Amino acid sequence: MTEIDDIDRAILASLSRDARQSAGAVGKQLGMSQPATWRRIRRLQDAGVFAGRRVDLDAEKLGFGVTVFLGVKLATKGRVSLEDFERAVTAIPEVQTVQHVLGLYDYRLRVVARDLSDFERVLRRRIMTLPGVGNVEANVLLSEERLPGPIAMC
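Above: the chain's sequence. Below: its structure in token form.
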């Protein structure tokens, strides 16, 4: 585990708001020099604290107005490997996340669709035909009040 102090947390918080910022811009916010900030960012990168950088797209503005969370229970774990299911489900572009979970369901999927009829098409033609799919429970997202924030802020 990497030692993270209050300055590191402040750097992570700043970068989580806008990962495009330069080390100089982050340092200016925190009252630090660009080289000192850059060294800390580099240390955090080298330690693997950053899982990557990404662009968050607005699905609704791209025409995907419906988000559905699916709980998927595999029907026959012995006959179909988890890897086969995971490989098949990750090939579906509307499936945004695949989480292997413990509990009532084996997997939790985040699926986007243009509208409910488009979701029904994805569900019937793509998801329900995947190897080993048994029970499926759908929860339609009505609103999202809090987006994931940096763990270091806790």
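The mean pLDDT is 89.
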